[in-house]
Structures are given as structure tokens and as C-alpha cells.
Amino acid sequence: MYDYLIVGTGLFGSIFAYEASKKGYKCLVLERRSHIGGNCYTENIENINVHKYGAHIFRTSDESIWKYMQQFCKFNHFINSPIANFKGEIYNLPFNMNTFSKLWNIFSPEEAEDIISKQSKEIQGEPKNLEEHAIKIVGRDVYEKFIKGYTEKQWGRACKDLPASIMRRIPVRYIYDNNYFNDPYQGIPLGGYTAIFDKMLKGCEVLLNVDFLKHRQEFQSKAKKIIFTGAIDSYFDYKYGALEYRSLRFEHKILDIGNYQGVAVVNYTDRETPYTRTIEHKHFEFGTQEKTIVSEEYPLEWSKDIEPYYPINDIKNQALYEKYLDLAKKKKNVYFGGRLGEYRYYDMQDSVKSALEFSKKELRGSL
Ligand code: FAD
């Protein structure tokens, strides 16, 4: 008999597995994919660590999370400085003085603030949709070139038909600074992410290619408690209907050249290019290999048989999630965690934090 059956080998499941086995608990870990690591998974191809589920840059402002991760890896000094390609014109991201000086041929922050403030006056009162919300913050020029096409591709809907609430904070900086993130700690694990999960799961039994929901009877009797990091609605057989997500499709290409785009991440911000981003993986680790690997990221409408990526935390879905949460609370000895289990737009640091908080509570005073 196992103490814990852990479903999913992403950050949440793997951290809990690590903390529980450290305390002497016997854990069985199931993963429906053919590998560990969830969406953080990297695969070494042509001596390049390929982020198979999109660019993953670890960052945090929380020193304790940064320190916690150091026991599993060393981070390099990568700083995320993506660029935007709008119909062949190249601009720096996030929106900062480098972007504005190229866009308007200006030099000073005062000029940039003046232009944005004049343009944002177009929207008076409370913004009614994402388009109005974006124009109110960054003005029409920035919205038209960098937000409109990209967001419409990402969500498969016009910005006028999208609620302002789905747009995360729009970072705007009136300094010449291309660092996408504000967090003091940032980097890519040397040697890729998968090695982190190898270490976390070392003390447990791991079964790959096993979908818990298809073998529920067989596995739930094997452990005293279940930690489920798959989609919460799937656990309850979509009893109240399915929670909605956006999905993605990745196309990975090996190219016989050393350097394709000169940067790890390029956002294609026009409407016409079918993908939203291209990732050139070697640049995450300053690679000098002879070949290069580039991935195109295509937004995709989600359905039950494809991988869910981004939860759509609008009012309707949030209300549905609350109903599943009520069911979850009534379940004895089954706990839900992580991006899918909590239906939250979690960055890696959020999943780490949530897993550590849960581990502390669950394993407190045990053994
Ligand atoms: P997951 O990684 O989704 O792990 C859940 C696991 O459970 C999966 O392996 C899944 O296969 C498995 N599973 C589900 N159901 C079952 C079942 N029934 N049976 C067995 N196994 C099951 N975060 C950052 O901090 N920085 C970034 O740059 C960043 N970029 C991202 C880019 C993309 C395209 C995406 C999609 C996410 C990105 N993230 C980033 C977020 C990051 O991937 C997540 O925060 C993190 O992976 C969440 O870990 P998790 O354990 O909660 O979930």
C-alpha cells in the first residue's frame, strides 16, 4: 500500500512527491504523457535543450522559491528580451523606450508619455472590452501594432469581443530596458528542466503513459491518499460541463544553420502570420552548436481530446470552477493542485509556491 498516489509529474506533483518521500512516505506517481516534467519538459535534440511545450523562463521575486529550486539545478544568467516582428518591422519588447523611439522616432521619455497620454484619451470612461482597455493604457499605435493581431490570434476572437479581464497586466516602461520581467531572480536551468524532475522524483515509483482516469479502479485502491494535478473537471467526469481553455500546437524544426533569429523568442504581432511566436532554443543557453532548432507556436481552440494550456478565468468559467471546488472539498483523501487542479493561470513560481504550501500543510507533524 502506498501512502500517496500522485497524478501528474509537473511541478506541483513532483514537488509534493519530493517532499513526501523526503519524509519517508511511499509514493506512486502516474503520468499520462511519455515523459516527466509536465509543460516544463525539455528534450535534448542535436545537443540543444528543446522546450517542447513552449518557452519556459524561470523567474521569481521570492528569494525562498529561488533558493528552493537551487537544490535541483543551477540557473544561468538568461534574461528574457523578446522582440516583436510586425510585418517584417522589428521592435523591442516589453513596451519600453527602445520600442517607442523606433515607433515614433523620438528620444525622451517625456515625448513617449505625451504621445501615449494623448492617444489614450480616445477612450473615455470605463473600457467596455479588451480593445478599449488596451488603448486606454498604451494608446492606439502600440495597440494596433503589437496587441491587436497577436491577441486575436491567441484567443481566436476580435479584441472588441474579448473582455478586458483576460489581458494580464500590460508592462510599459519609460526607460531603455528590454528585460521582460521585473523579478530580481531569473534564468534557465543549466542542462534543461527535465533533470530537475529526475531529481525530484528519484525516491518514488513513476509510471509513464498511464492515464489515471482510464485506470481509476486499479490505482485508487493502491494508496491512502490521492494528489490529483490533472484537470479538476475531468476528475468529476465533467459532471457540470467542461471548463474552457486555450490550447497550442507546436511545430519543431531542425535547421542546418547556426543562428536563425538571433534571440530566443520572437512575437509575431500581425494578424496574418499564423503562429504567435517562434522560439530558437539554443539562445536560452547561449548555445554555439552547428545546427539550430526553431519552434513555431500556433494557438488552437481547445476540445476535450487535446492538451489544455491556458485556463480562461472569466466569470462564467470561474463560477463553474467553484462548483467543482465544492465537490472537491467533499472528497475525503483526494486533493487537487497545480495549474489544472486549481484552474489557475500559474507561472512556474506559482506552482512551486502552491505545492510547497500544500506539502507543508499536508505533511505537517507527520512521521
Ligand atoms: P503541469 O505542468 O500541467 O503538470 C500536470 C501534469 O499532469 C501533466 O504532466 C499532465 O500530463 C498530467 N496529467 C493530467 N491529467 C492526468 C491524468 N488523468 N493521468 C495522469 N497524468 C495526468 N511559467 C513560467 O514561470 N515561465 C514561463 O516562461 C512559462 N511559459 C509557459 C509557456 C507555455 C506555452 C505554457 C503552456 C506555460 C508556461 N508557463 C510558464 C507555465 C508553466 O508551464 C506552469 O506553471 C507549470 O508547468 C505548472 O505545473 P503544474 O504541475 O501545475 O502543471
Strand order of the largest sheet: 7-6-12-13-14-11-15
- Sheet-strand content, in percent, reads 15-25%
- Overall pLDDT confidence: 96
Specify the CATH homologous superfamily of the largest domain. Answer: NAD(P)-binding Rossmann-like Domain
Q: Catalogue the unreliable spans.
A: none
The number of E-state strands comes to: 16
Which kinds of small molecule does this entry bind, naming each only once?
A: flavin-adenine dinucleotide
- Give the overall silhouette: globular
Helix content: 25-40%
Number of helices: 11
Gap from first CA to last CA: 16 Å
CATH class descriptor name of the largest domain: Alpha Beta
CATH architecture of the largest domain: 3-Layer(aba) Sandwich
**In terms of structural class, how would the helical and strand content be classed?**
alpha/beta
Task: Compose a concise summary of this entry.
The chain is α/β, with parallel strands linked by helices. The protein has helices at residues 11-22, 63-70, 97-104, 109-120, 130-155, 194-200, 216-220, 232-235, 315-330, 338-341, 348-363, and strands at residues 2-7, 27-30, 42-45, 48-51, 58-60, 83-86, 89-92, 185-187, 205-207, 223-228, 245-255, 265-268, 277-280, 292-301, 310-311, 334-336. The protein has three domains: 2-78 and 186-245 and 307-362, 3-Layer(aba) Sandwich (Rossmann fold), CATH 3.40.50.720; 94-167, protoporphyrinogen ix oxidase, domain 3, CATH 1.10.3110; 250-301, no CATH class.
